[in-house]
Each structure stands twice: as structure tokens, then as C-alpha cells.
Amino acid sequence: GSDEATKNWVLMVTAQCPTNIAVIKYWGKRDESLILPINDSISVTLDPQHLCTTTTAAVSPTFDTDKMWLNGKEISLSSGRFQSCLREIRSRANDVEDQEKGICIKKQDWEKLHVHIASFNNFPTAAGLASSAAGFACLVYSLSKLMNVKEEQGKLSAIARQGSGSACRSLFGGFVKWVMGNEANGNDSLAVQLASETHWDDLVIIIAVVSSHQKETSSTTGMRESVVTSPLLHYRSKEVVPKRIVEMEKAIKTRDFALFARLTCADSNQFHATCLDTSPPIFYMNDTSHRIISYMEKWNQFEGTPQVAYTFDAGPNAVLIAPNRKAASLLLQRLLFYFPPPSDTELSSFVIGDKTIVKDAGIAAMKDVEALPPPSELKGNAPSQRFRGDISYFICTRPGKGPVMFDDEDRALLHPKTGFPK
Ligand code: DP6
Predict the structure, then answer these.
(1) Predicted ipTM?
(2) DSSP sequence for 52-64
(3) What average pLDDT does range 324-350 have in this prediction?
(4) How far is it, in rounded angstroms, from Cα 334 to Cα 291?
């Protein structure tokens, strides 16, 4: 009868959140459980077209526990980080009504109702690209929409922070600062947008996914060990980062690429130096990462002014930022010259994302990669070696927008009738 019908509804929302790359790094916590950092950090949000998480959050009286699926596989929600995010969002839930479906959820009902969450990354998890940032941002954002949470984006970022620190910066597009804050409860440790993605839209970002079989120390473990053992980390957070934050904000505001590049490279290098200063030392970059740095430094040196900025997180992959399309195509030519693909690779799977950069670089087929001349900074001294296969693939992208909701039910990852994965 009608009683059954009114109990079988499923209500859901689907949202998309971007990843971000820090140009002034977060490394070290002053509070482990609230995830409060020892310094401010600044990031660039990456275009969700190329790198993002999509999440569907659903509620139904038929669900008997909270459940989550990541890339189609059920995962546990028992960790403190998931529990914090769920608790914080639930406690801010409001009344929700869907007249069409005859659904009326009262504020207090949310404590008893269970949720299903399905998440999907549009980039390979195996690539070792930080997926926790987009993942926790999307979890918090989609649940907040489902539960009609009325907090502003900054407050949501402070909740996402409790899932993974870097996730708080994924609640905004463009250029974002995570303000460390100073309250013990963490309420003022949140993200603020410095500029939208349209403010500096000439920038082009190329990610080099470095081939590696090594299992790295997780960021969480690595930074805990650095906080305990690295004197350099404490000097960095107190003396170096505060000044760099001011300078980086200025570089972004005035679109000063030379300043932006110098700060980005210096900060990445200092972060990796604090890892070396940790006992026992942590190595995130490998020989390929180091080679990329040398080639980029040589190019910048030769031109006399920065053509490219590089930055590396807790792994060997390089994120390279060029000031415009012209510089990006010169950058891609260099990368493909030094790191050509193995002979059986398709161009279309070796350079992914925004393919127009490949076209700009004059590369239409693999034979064009093989025919690339040595970069001018080599001054006719052909290198003794090319490192074929040392980079798995490249992703061409740009600064991008923040979270968005999808109205289209086709994009949902859960079945609209059952609330289980499609
Ligand atoms: C090197 O945010 O992954 O990418 O807060 O413990 O989850 P937890 O760590 P996480 O650390 C990111 C570290 C970094 C630098 C950065 O993104 O700022």
C-alpha cells in the first residue's frame, strides 16, 4: 500500500570536485586528529575536466548502515577521518523536502538515517596522483548538499580538512590559501580563495606521471616523522613559509610568473629537503624527478627568466606550470625529447588531457616525437642518453573551477531506485 511506497524512496545528489597542487606546501601538523597544520599553504586547483572526483551521496529509509564505494569497490568508513566528516555534516543537517517524491526529512531524522556514498576518480589511482584531496572534498560537498547544510564554503572546507588536510583547498577553484588558524578547536583553519580560475587563465599545467614501482611513505606518516625529527621543518614553518606566503599572494595577484616560478620551485625543493632532513630520511623523488628538475633549471637558466615552474608532492611525479601556451608547447617538446615513450605506445595515450597543447607543439604522430631536435639550451651538444619509458604519460591541463553539482541523474553513480552502485 501507500505506506510501503512512502518508505522505499531514495534521495540522492551527485557532485564533482577538483584536485589541487600546492605551490607553497603543507607539511606537518600541530594537531593530528583535527588535522591542523604548522603553516599556511597555497595551491592551484586543477581543471576537473582532466582530474576530478565524482561522488553520489544518497539517503533512504531502506539503508541499514552507512556504506561507501570507491571506483566500484566497497571501502570501510570506520576510520576516524570518515567518521569526523560524517559527524560534522550530520550535525549541521536541515529539513529536506521533495514534493514530487513525497519525501519529507526533518532535521532530527538525519541522526537515524543512513547514507550510501559512491566515488569515482577520472584519473588512474595507480598513477599515485593525490586523490584524497578531491575525494574528501567531494564527500563533504555532496553530503552537505544532500543534507541541506547551509554553511558557507569556508566552513565546509574546515570539515573537509578533517578528512585530509589538502582536501580543504579543493572546495574552491583557481588559487587557494589554507589559513593555518590559531584556535585550538580548528574552527579558523580553513581555505579561502585568493583568485578565481579566470584571473590567470594563460597558465598551462603539464603533469609528468613518472614510472615507479616503489611504495612511498604516506603523507600522513611522512609529515609526522618530519615534525618529530627534522629541525629544518621547524625553521621552514616559522621563518621561511610566512614570508613566502606574502610573496606568493603578490605573485598571483600581479600575475608575476617569474616570482611565482621562483617561489614554487624553491618551496618544492625545501619540502623535499625537509624529507631528507627527517630521520630516517624519506625519498619521494627518484632519478627521473631529479632529471626533470635539472632540465627545467637548465632551460630557465639559458633563457635568463623562468619559462617553467616545477613542483613535486609526496611521490616522484612532476607538476610543471608554464606561463602560456607558447611556453607550454616548448615545454612539451623538451619533455618528449628527453623522455620519449616506448616504441609500441600510441601518442593519444602518452599525452592525455588537453590535446591542443600537443598540436601547438607541432606533434601529430609518434614520428614527430622521434624527430624532435635537441633543445637550444644544449647548444648543439646532443645528450648521451634519452630516457625512453621513464615517464608513463603526460596530462595537459590548466587551473580549474571548484565543486559543482550535477542535476542529470545519468551522472549518478548509485541506482536511483535501489541506492546501490549502478
Ligand atoms: C605533499 O593532505 O595528503 O601534498 O592531511 O595527513 O591527509 P593528510 O595529508 P595530505 O598531505 C599533502 C602533502 C603534500 C603537500 C600539499 O598538498 O600541500
Answers:
(1) 0.99
(2) EEEEEEEEETT--
(3) 96
(4) 12
At 272, the amino acid letter reads: H
Grid coordinates of 401:
573551477
Half-sphere exposure of 98 (CA within 13 A, CB side): 15
Name the helix (H) or strand (E) containing 251: helix 241-253
pTM, two decimal places: 0.97
pLDDT(1) > 50: no
- Overall average pLDDT of the 303-310 stretch: 98
Residues 237 and 284 sit within 8 Å (Cβ to Cβ)? no
* Cβ of 282 below 6 Å from ligand 1: no
Average pLDDT over residues 304-320: 97
The pLDDT value recorded for residue 5 is 53
Q: Do the Cβ atoms of 123 and 395 come closer than 8 Å?
A: yes
Q: Where are the domains of the chain?
A: 2-197+405-411, 204-397
Cell 624529507 belongs to which residue?
275
Please work out whether the CB of residue 131 comes within 6 Å of at least one atom of ligand 1.
no
Atom index in ligand 1 nearest the CA of residue 25 equals 18
Look-up of cell digits 600581479: 254
Superfamily of domain 204-397: GHMP kinase, C-terminal domain (3.30.70.890)
C-alpha cell at 140: 563533504
Nearest CA owner, ligand 1 atom 7: 164
**Atom in ligand 1 nearest the alpha carbon of residue 313:** 1
Q: Which CATH number fits domain 2-197+405-411: 3.30.160.40, 3.80.10.10, 3.30.230.10, 1.10.10.10?
A: 3.30.230.10
Cα(156) to centroid(ligand 1), Å: 18
Ligand 1 lined by 311 (C-beta under 6 Å): no
Distance 167 CA to ligand 1 centre (A): 8
Which tens digits make up the pLDDT trace of 133-182?
A: 999 999 999 999 999 999 999 999 999 999 999 999 999 999 999 999 99
Query: What tens digit of pLDDT does each residue of 228-269 get?
Result: 999 999 999 999 999 999 999 999 999 999 999 999 999 999
Identify whether the C-beta of residue 169 lies closer than 8 Å to the C-beta of residue 403. Answer: no
22 CA to centre of ligand 1 in angstroms: 9
pLDDT of residue 354: 96
Which DSSP category does 421 fall into?
Answer: B
